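#struct-help
A.M.: can someone run this one for me? Single chain, 224 residues.
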Amino acid sequence: MPTLFVVGTPIGNLEDVTRRALRILREVDVVLCEDTRVTQKLLAKYAITAKQLSTYNEQESGVTAGKIIGWLEEGKSVALVSDAGTPGISDPGSLLVQKVREALPKVKIESVPGPSALTAALSVAGVPVHDFIFLGFLPHKKGRETLFKEISSADRPYIFYESPHRILKALESLQKFSPQKHVVICRELTKVHEEVLRGTAEGLLEFFKNNPEKVRGEFVVIAS
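D.P.: on it. Structure tokens below:
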């Protein structure tokens, strides 16, 4: 039976991958990824030679959802991976799943669970999180200030991803709208330079300004 596998891959440390995920990547007819260079590193580590490795991002280059649907109609099995973590979380994976469900309702879509920066950060943050709001990557401009105002009056933790290019601006906004909030920043999770920082937005902003070499990698921000 043709199947679309949604496969979680490591967010940093390449050892964080399940045996099931590796088996699927060996067996499927096509592996879809964001960047073949990134996925190839994982495949090479485990001596996996993909039958076909193609990029999928729907917004730039690479194969389209229509092409992928065609492969499934032909009876091929397809694995979808992201550069890091679980597809569909702040990447175009959810759009592909939606289109396949609409076009081929009888095709099986199977989750192969794996790492997520969100759950990894929450596990080491030391913040009570029986419930929380996850925002993914914040918008660059439109709606960004509205979200920071929303965070300021929230009674539950807000969590979002941020890039090194905008982490200082994010802290400046938290300092402006939520100076009383406790902030946890997790950077480079599962990698050699993994770091968890805690404090106020003001204190963390000063830390990064004094240590510009640490303004790199991926960031998970928790404001509570």
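A.M.: thanks! Residues 155 and 224 are 8 Å apart (CA to CA).
D.P.: also worth noting: Helices lie at 19-27, 36-45, 65-73, 93-103, 117-125, 144-152, 167-177, 201-210.
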